[in-house]
Amino acid sequence: MLQDTNRMLGKTLRGRYQIIRLLGSGGFGATFVAEDRDLPGKPQCVVKQLKSKDVDPSLLQTARRLFETEAQVLYRLGKHDRIPQLLAHFEENQEFYLVQEFIEGEDLSQEITSGKQMNEAEVIAFLQDVLETLVFVHHQNVIHRDIKPSNIIRRRQDGKFVLIDFGAVKEITSLVITTQGQTGGTILIGSSGYMPNEQLGGKPRFNSDIYALGMTAIQALTGISPDELQSEAETGEVIWREQARVSKQLAAILDKMVRSHFRERYQSANEVLEDLRKLQSTLVGYTHYLMLPAFSQKSIVKYYEIYLVIITAVTTIFLTRLFQEAATINNHNSPRVMATLSAQKPEVVELLNQGKTLIELRRYDEAIGSLDKAIQIEPTYPEIWLERGKALLELQKFEEALRSFDEAVKLKSDYAPAWYCRGIVLEKLNRNTEALASLDKTVEIEQNYPEAWYIRGEILYKLQRYQEAVKSFDKAVKFQQNYVEAWYNIGIVLNKLQRHKEALSALEKAVQIQPAYPEAWVERGSTLGKLQKYNDAIASFDKALALNPNSAEAWYERGYVLEKLMLYEEALACLEKAIQIKQDYAQAWYNRGIVLEKLNKYDLAIASYDRAGQLQPDYSEAWYQKGIVLEKLQKYDEALAAYDKAIQIWPANQPAIENRKQLLTKLGR
């Protein structure tokens, strides 16, 4: 490795970045200081070389895709003033490179060495600085996962705190990382003492970062590392107050930041900032302490090379993500179990990780092959059966998938993801009662499982159990407030229950979360139509059509409302557009007949009703409406036949019964 890095010195990458010195190296890459020869003054930057040597060629394309995805995350994050910018990323000779901003400063761990403490005002200022950055990070759908003193730099230029180490971040739907230096197994991103319980369990949340920041602030106040602090035996809460001189108000905020259970913790960085602002307004006497320490008083004025060494370590983890054979959307297994399995049967973990990666590559048959080999060696590990079931589910081999999920829950009865997947496959098999029971078990084990509540709601809706469906969707949005599909479905079900005003509120929430959601705009317009707010409804349909001009439903609903406004020609044009897009749209053919009838185009109206009846043989209303037009044309026997057909299809069609009775009386029959 040393020979490889020495050969890099003096080399120019892409004809632009000239390597001038090595900063650090790891198992999969090295970090260098380089000069950017294309810019005036040749400013320095950091170049991280990510080694791809010995990578399975079949995985290289996956590595490229993951590298590109991660780079785009880093670009987005780098737009913030207090996050290092990613200046470039590229591949050269099958090796990947990141070019990042060169930060001058000193990390927080250098300031809060053992026994050295910040005062309260300094901690408040520190928290406000980092929390403002976290608001931005979380809005990008990213969890940092490794906030700690060494990953926070005080920038020499202005004393602001810069959040680093984003090589370790993962977006919510990211893959699990494993290192090539190990045989396999799940690697937790984070540092001991700064990770809350849910992160240790492999399920970090946005407020996991709040916990880590709170522990960092407590360390700054006490001078004591989190690992050295005691915790309550029963509650697991950290015992720290006696080690610090701090007001009760700030202590209460920090306590809430580091609550053991995520539900009792602050749910967002904005919530913490708001409480800090309230606290700050009471500390007028401390205002002069809020100034950050002046760097002119520091004896160390140097480039922040420690930070760059950290970049080396972190991007090593990042490289691991690119090249290791492991991919899954959620890790619900105990890290202790994984570690034990990795130590005792590393070949099983290797096969499991191969299976996960092959699923990511959509090579499902090969994935099943790897997982079957793992099962032959270790048949009692539930995650193998879970992943095997997922691959079979993708292949639509539902019965086989169900057997795999059954085996997973037999081995681990409280395995929520397996119960959840079991519910999905049972729904695919149209075994809805069993699917509901499986999803009920999922949320019994893990109440905070929005996806399970959502699928449960969909099944209840399909079973026309609308009240229960609403409650299930409500649970989904309780645990995931921005669950746009759940808000949309709440609107649909509430409309079924004739609760149109509540439906409108839910649909407003859906389009607020995701403005580019044409289906939600259509349902919103339909709801406004039911509330007789026709002009607002048309505006909503127009919004949907701007997003998707080929939405047959939007054209149909727009035509329906225009008919209510007696704008028949415009309504007809919309309905014909809907039929042009979706020729088997029975309801559009029916409404087209209604409009043509209003325009006194009776023959065309009859043809339209006939087409609706052909497409939907049980369309009683189409036969009834056809009877009305035939009666207007004085084709009484045909009208009677149409009424008879309408009543035959739906014996409770009272308007058809009444019209038939009146026509018979009129004819003296």
TrEMBL record:
PANTHER family assigned: CELLULOSE SYNTHASE OPERON PROTEIN C, TPR REPEAT-CONTAINING PROTEIN MJ0798
Keywords: ATP-binding, Nucleotide-binding, Repeat, TPR repeat
Binding site for ATP: K48
Database matches in InterPro entries: Kinase-like_dom_sf, Prot_kinase_dom, Protein_kinase_ATP_BS, TPR-like_helical_dom_sf, TPR_rpt, Ycf3/AcsC/BcsC/TPR_MFPF
Limits of the Protein kinase domain: 17-283
Top-level taxonomy: Bacteria, Bacillati, Cyanobacteriota, Cyanophyceae, Oscillatoriophycideae
TPR repeats: 348-381, 382-415, 450-483, 484-517, 518-551, 552-585, 586-619, 620-653
Database matches in SMART domains: S_TKc, TPR
Full protein name: Tetratricopeptide repeat protein
Natural source organism: Aerosakkonema funiforme FACHB-1375
GO MF entries: ATP binding; protein kinase activity
Domain of life per record: Bacteria
